[in-house]
Specification:
The complex is a heterodimer of chains A (141) and B (432). Chain A has 141 residues and is α+β, with helices and mostly antiparallel strands. Chain A contains five helices and seven strands; from the N terminus they run βαββαβαββαβα.
Chain lengths: 141, 432
């Protein structure tokens, strides 16, 4: 139940994000979730999109450096303590989180979070008591 | 006031002296350096063909490549037992340019530096604050021995630690500063920051070199320090600093022609240009023992000033350098060849050498060098720390090769401007 995430190298200069988004817009890609990690000189834009292959093709055609990374998407109750509960499950299963971010849309009444962990396959097996979403679920959001 | 009588001898006398010394040097290298014997033989030149300065153009050139091909000691003309010192500077392909000095060479060099100090208005009563780096670089030790030869007092402070430099200047009563011009500006800034009053500083002159600078920088340095700022020129292959130096007229650098014969050539044809025209500066050493060089191509571009100098010295003067015929950069006094940086980048796994070197000079400060490297799919990682480690790795490797600090920045593919498909390697933003 791994989900493909796109990671894009973005130079820290004005207009770059807009350029990348317009490439995706041109290819009619819909973004389901995104986060931007930044340093002094550059950033890494991470995204879950509805059609990853199409997005990669469009980006590569414009010489954008893009890589795919497997992530897992987890349902989180949209109420105080919801995320804490999920993170406790990760902690108890001794799974280290590299980074995480949230989806724009909810799944039913629950929020959805993206988690990057070292070994997603193992994490999927270990994690009990939280709902891990499939790629189909996510792209539909 | 001159340090040595030979600074004001007549052109005829100088010509005779140069001829005599050139004949001796040509014989010395032919007999003792297999490289020169081979080179002269294949050019069909015998030492006896050289009867005076007028025959200089018959001799073949020597290049930095020749020094590299004969690394490290191949062009030395005396056995190691006769050498007392080695210096080295960076070269084009990671191989250093190595030079050796006999006791006589050190003595000659010291005398030339002593002349330079006198040209800047110095005497044996002066306290020389020597902030050139001590080490393989010729600046530090070259100036040091010259100051001692003059009988001045030298403070071997070397480079770095600017606050301590100002404290020493203030407490020890330094009167002449020797360093790179950009460091002189940097120190001026430090003095201001420390709130040290100019009247508590005794500096009266500065002898600055080892990197290109301009009349604007001179004005700034003179104003900020209240001193005379003098330009000194040299290169380790020929001797080190003290091949040429300005007098207080500040109208070009007097070449010490009793030790080095300058020529200006057209870098394409190799022919001498008419007197007063611009071209590549070429030197023949005529008193050096350790590593005498015949018609060494400096790759520096300048012209000779035909008019006589008001100071009374009869030596010819060269103009401030106006450029290079190769892509060598001088950053904080250190010679940097882009090829060296390229080798480092290539050695870091997966990095294609699409890079650009951006050199700039901070407003009252030192040169900065940023190496931009284009990221490709092989290099890219989703993890920030992997990318940051890559930057650090390239940075450390370059720093260890060049010996100066750089910053490394990862940039997007194709973001480095290309002309005819080839990336522009160097962007020099320094306004000199």
């Amino acid at each position: 139940m791994k989900i493909v995430q796109l990671s894009i190298f973005v130079e820290n200069r004005e207009g770059r994000l807009a350029d990348i988004m317009s490439i995706l817009a041109g290819a009619k890609i819909n973004i389901r979730a995104l986060s931007l990690a930044d340093t002094k000189d550059f950033g890494v834009l991470r995204m879950i999109v509805d059609t990853p292959e199409k997005a990669i093709e469009a980006l590569k055609a414009k010489e954008i450096v893009v890589k795919t990374t497997d992530i897992i998407a987890v349902e989180v109750e949209d109420q105080p303590g919801g995320l804490a509960k999920v993170l406790k499950v990760f902690k108890d299963s001794k799974i280290n989180i590299e980074y995480m971010y949230a989806f724009v849309e909810k799944n039913n009444s629950n929020a959805v979070m993206v988690f990057r962990v070292e070994n997603p396959d193992e994490a999927v097996k270990k994690i009990k008591g939280v709902k891990i979403l499939s790629a189909e679920d996510v792209y539909k959001l | 006031m001159f340090y040595h009588k030979e600074e004001s001898i007549s052109r005829e006398e100088l010509n005779r002296l140069q001829s005599e010394r050139l004949i001796k040097t040509v014989k010395h290298v032919y007999d003792n350096v297999p490289f020169y014997k081979k080179k002269f033989d294949s050019a069909g030149i015998k030492p006896s063909d050289i009867k005076g300065v007028e025959d200089l153009a018959k001799l073949p050139f020597t290049t930095k490549g020749d020094l590299r091909d004969n690394y490290p000691y191949g062009l030395f003309a005396v056995p190691m037992k006769d050498l007392v010192r080695i210096h080295a500077s960076s070269g084009t392909t990671g191989k250093m340019t190595v030079v050796g000095y006999t006791q006589t060479d050190i003595s000659t060099w010291s005398e030339l530096i002593a002349r330079c100090i006198v040209m800047a208005g110095g005497t044996k009563d002066d306290i020389i604050h020597n902030a050139y780096g001590y080490g393989l670089f010729t600046g530090g030790l070259g100036v040091h021995y010259g100051a001692e030869k003059l009988g001045a007092t030298v403070i071997p402070v070397s480079g770095g630690n600017s606050q301590r430099q100002i404290k020493i200047m203030q407490d020890f009563g330094s009167t002449i500063l020797t360093c790179t011009p950009s460091y002189a500006l940097n120190l001026a800034e430090t003095r201001k920051e420390m709130g040290v009053d100019l009247k508590d500083i005794k500096l009266k002159a500065g002898i600055f070199g080892a990197e290109p600078w301009s009349e604007n920088m001179r004005r700034d340095i003179e104003k900020l320090w209240g001193i005379d700022a003098i330009d000194i020129y040299g290169l380790s292959e020929i001797m080190g600093p003290g091949v040429a130096c300005e007098c207080l007229e500040k109208k070009g650098l007097h070449v010490f022609e009793d030790h080095f014969i300058p020529e200006i050539i057209n870098p394409e044809t190799g022919r001498q240009v008419p007197h007063g025209q611009k071209g590549e500066l070429v030197f023949t050493t005529i008193t050096k023992e350790g590593i005498p060089l015949i018609r060494y191509r400096t790759r520096d571009i300048t012209r000779m000033i035909p008019e006589k100098c008001k100071c009374g010295r009869t030596s010819t003067r060269m103009e401030r350098l106006s450029g290079r015929t190769d892509d060598m950069l001088i950053i904080r006094g250190v010679n940097v060849f882009p090829s060296e940086i390229e080798m480092v980048i290539m050695s870091v796994e997966g990095v294609e050498p699409h890079y650009q070197i951006v050199v700039d000079r901070a407003e009252h400060g030192l040169d900065t060098m940023e190496v931009q490297v284009e990221v490709n799919e092989k290099l890219f990682s989703d993890e920030i720390k992997v990318l940051e480690n890559l930057e650090k790795k390239i940075q450390k490797e370059i720093e260890s090769v060049l010996g100066i600090g750089v910053s490394v920045k990862l940039v997007e593919p194709k973001s480095i401007a290309r002309s005819e498909g080839k990336a522009k390697r160097i962007v020099d933003k320094r306004k000199l």
